[in-house]
Amino acid sequence: MSGGHHAHGSYQPTTGIGRWIDARLPLPRLMYDSFVAYPVPRNLNYAYTFGGILTIMLVLQIVTGVVLAMHYGANTVVAFNSVEHIMRDVNSGWLIRYMHANGASFFFIAVYIHIFRGLYYGSYKAPREMLWILGVIIYALMMATGFFGYVLPWGQMSFWGATVITGFFSAIPLVGEWVQQLLLGGFAVDNPTLNRFFSLHYLLPFMIAGVVVLHVWALHVTGQTNPTGIEVKSKGDTVPFSPHATAKDAFAMFVFLAVFAYFVFYIPNFLGHPDNYTPADPLKTPAHIVPEWYYLPFYAILRAITFNIGPIDSKLGGVLAMAASILVLFFVPWLDTSKVRSAVYRPWYKLFFWIFAADCLFLGWLGSKPAEGAYVVMSQIGTLYYFGFFFIIMPLLGLIETPRRLPNSITEAVLAKQKQPAAAALPASEPAGHH
Amino acid sequence: MSATDHSEPTRRDFLYVATGMAGAVGVAGAAWPFIDQLRPDASTLALASIDVDVSSIESGMSVTVKWRGKPVFIRNRTDKEVEDAKAVPMADLKDPVARNENQPAEADATDLARSAGEGKENWIVMVGSCTHLGCVPLGQAGDFGGWFCPCHGSHYDTAGRIRKGPAPQNLHIPHYAFTSDTVVKIG
Question: CB pairs below 8 Å between A and B: how many?
Fold first, then answer.
């Protein structure tokens, strides 16, 4: 593994100025060792390209966001109209705003695929706990950033979304109301709220960028996982990052951005909500409040708790359940007791994983439905499985499941796969035998 | 340094601890203005009270006025609505407390304690923020003919008491008074 030992890198500055810089601030060496010569497992599939896609999306959001801030007015009097001004008057403003709004959605699409890839291949298991935790922190920061950003256009959904989300804090016993007023800067969502949310919306992406650096650092200390879940054992198990990973990442990025472009140019409001084109009205709540799609599963969990649990009333219970549904991710490395990393070799985990993935989509669908009748019961069932997956299935399955036989190395797994079509009936090839 | 070898604390240990404590207090003191500035400012707090003319509100009608950035419902209830609310046994209430700032904190949520009081029982004045997560409930709606919150399905009766759904408390009643027969001062 690289482990940050620059002295062992293969970087050779070829010019005088290159050697001069290398002796003083070896940044080119760091980049070379991290993104050119860096060894990656030879069997990475396209599920592993979303880290790169996420990096591009973060850059895209920061660039478009900085530009939008040049034309936007963070004041309740002008906010809504300034967004319309961007859409109608500012040169290319419509394009930049649609890129930013849809960019947020595609950022979340990418992060969800990235997280589910980690859950499927057991990427969070030792020694990558820190890597995983940093990822969860990034995800939490993304959710906060997305929430603040959605308030800025000052439409009806902006206003009432902000009211509902800051209302979560009023559920805290004793200090809840004080905390809520601290967040709002008043008794209701108003100008002080919009101002501070704008400030924080500008700040948080740079904090995300900082944690991304730590995330990549942690990744390069432990090395990447791969679909087999077996650690790299020899040089033959890896290929250099460039051109192999860079080319694969670039191709995936192009495909991803092509889909993104389709949304931006043809259905730019598909993922938005028409109510947000109505200016915020503090005296009138829209008939049906829904958060952005990427929060819907958590919203369903919030609304699933319609009953008191001992001294905890249903309001606090819902907020706690929703918070727990995100916080549980921090503990996944210790909740999974299996010795085997990848779901490829865990038939039962694979089954429960896909049920879990379907459950998250199910909860997302329920989050978009009104909280009444059968939807509430379905949300409760979905919530039960959500927590059951983490707190019962994950710990228990590791103890009772019989995994499939693991190959001895990544190379053996790759070669066995290549032989399969020709000689499927033959036993697996002999072990590669490196230490 | 071998200060940890001594069983007796030295003058130097004392100075370390004292310096550290002073530093911690200094950091906390410096941090406080940055937290304090987030709280409602003077101009927000200055919007203390408003006067509302209710002479044009006929029986069965209601108006919504804005107070401290929040909607306040003023409803002139019909006799039937008052009777319906009075007929509800206290045991049926999810929140048995009046939540009326003009009443003692522990007052029961009877219809009288929720209304503008003896002789003005037809009037009810409440902050129009659902006690669940702050949406504005719709008037003359819901299973109990009072208010219904469209966000998460809380039903309030004609006295604004929570009867069904996730909201934990009755709609809050702000400090208010009839300064004349037709004017209500809220706040």
Answer: 93
CA pair distance B165, B158, nearest whole angstrom: 16
Show the tokens assigned to B31: 């941090």
pLDDT band for position A239 (cuts 50, 70, 90): very high
Identify whether the C-beta of residue A219 lies closer than 8 Å to the C-beta of residue A398.
no
Total structural domains within chain B: 2
Interval A377-394: pLDDT, tens: 999 999 999 999 999 999
Residues 6 or more apart whose CB falls under 8 angstroms from that of A407 comprise: A228, A230, A413, A416, A428
Unique residue bearing structure tokens 């990447």:
A224
- Domain co-membership, B23 together with B76: no
Set of chain A residues whose Cβ sits within 8 Å of the Cβ of B41: 185, 192
Shortest alpha-carbon distance between residue B161 and chain A (Å): 16
Q: Is B132 a catalytic residue?
A: no
Q: Is the dihedral of CA B92, B98, B104, B106 positive or negative?
A: positive
In this complex, which of A168, A188, A192 lies closest to B68 when CB atoms are compared? A188
**What distance lies between CA A236 and its chain's CA centroid?**
32
Give the ipTM of the model, two decimals please. 0.76
| Residues B131 and B159 both lie in one domain | yes
Whether A283 and B150 lie within 8 Å, measured CB to CB: no
In this structure, the strands spanning B70-76 and B62-67 are antiparallel
Q: Which of B133, B136, B165 sits opposite A284 (nearest CB)?
A: B136
Question: Is residue A273 within 8 Å of A297, Cβ to Cβ?
Answer: no
Q: Do A370 and B136 touch (CB under 8 A)?
A: no
Q: What's the rounded Cα separation, in Å, for the pair B67 and A43?
A: 63
Which residue in B152, B155, B172, B175 is the catalytic one?
B152
Burial (CB count within 10 angstroms: exposed 0-12, middle 13-18, buried 19+), residue B159: buried
Cβ pair B166:A196 closer than 8 A: no
d(CA B64, nearest CA chain A) in Å: 7
Q: Which domain holds residue B92?
A: 46-186
Instruction: Say which CATH number the domain at B152 has.
Output: 2.102.10.10
Q: Does pLDDT of A278 surpass 80?
A: yes
Interface contact flag, B41 A192, Cβ < 8 Å? yes
Q: Which residue has the tokens 């259905």?
A: A267
* Nearest-CB residue to A164 (from B64, B133, B137): B133
3-class DSSP assignment, residue B138: strand
Kindly report the pTM of this predicted structure: 0.87
Q: Which CATH superfamily is domain A27-273+287-419 in?
A: Cytochrome Bc1 Complex; Chain C (1.20.810.10)
How far apart (Å, rounded) are the C-alpha atoms in residues A346 and A339?
10
